[in-house]
Write a structure and sequence with these properties.
This protein has 93 residues and is an all-alpha fold. The protein is built from five helices and no strands. Helix 2 packs across helix 3.
Length: 93
Amino acid sequence: MERSVADSNAKVTQDAIRDDLKLAKLAAKHGVHHRMIAAWKRQTIEGMSAMFSGAGDTTRTASDAEVEKLPVEIERLLVDRIFSEGLWSVGMA
């Protein structure tokens, strides 16, 4: 997502959390469907709870673990490709 779009969505969400305007008025003001604003608001509030509970750290650790597995997966895919396309015999000649 482009930075300006993300910033714009964040601004809309901040306005929704402040509750200065009803969702319908926010939607008209920013040109975004009111259900989308409600979903962003809900996700933001849920994310804030995770941030303070430390649950976000677990997600980051899981992601790091997946990244560590990538070299092995890449090697496996390369070997599969070599054998499936018959490239192994070409290199052995």
